[in-house]
Amino acid sequence: MYVERASRLAGAVVWTNTPDRSGAGRVLPDGCMDLLWHDGRLLVAGPDTHAHLTDGGTGAWAGVRFYPGTAPALLGVPAHELRDRRAELSDLWPASEVRRLAGRVNAAPDPARGLEELALRLAAGAGPPDPLLRQVVTALGAGRTVAATADELGLGARQLHRRSLAAFGYGPKTLARILRLRRALALARDGVPFADTAARAGYADQAHLARDVRELAGLPLGELIGRGG
What we know:
The protein has 229 residues and is of the alpha+beta class. It has helices at 71-75, 95-107, 111-126, 131-141, 146-153, 157-168, 172-189, 194-201, 206-217, 221-225; strands at residues 2-6, 13-17, 26-27, 34-38, 41-45, 52-53, 61-65, 86-88.
């Protein structure tokens, strides 16, 4: 069973997942990175460009999902280096440091709370997040074009692309596409007809929505949300 709650770290989400049966799961791209705990180990989930299929294991997982663009400053690793990857934290940081941090998380009343405390300490040490990155997410998430977003922020196209790679793991066009997918899924899950979902989320038409969902999520929209068109 998957459960999530808002974190005390601004914009982050704390979640737990204990699969109740064996079988592969599907994690959809969302522009975020996660700090993970599983079986006593600490891992990092990089930004996905397509659905990530889990291996079907039944052990418990916990995670902190960071607001888009904020994790690289906390982890000290550009997001594009972790794109479409799940990496042991010890691959990024000294093993002795990771063992110490894992010990703290494992000693917490529950792993999710321990991860949240770790995330809060990392954020305190990194200083305030770059406000420009949140502005990029807000603008693209609202459906503004990449060109309009760059103009609003006073950035050149190359500068925006470079900063997006480091913060989000991919360029602004890919981030905009993923955020548009999230808008569409939210509408469709609320019962909005697929044609209206396409128009309201910013797709050219329903066929465009269907292609994008299949490419990014790996399933037709109706199957993904459990209903027909």
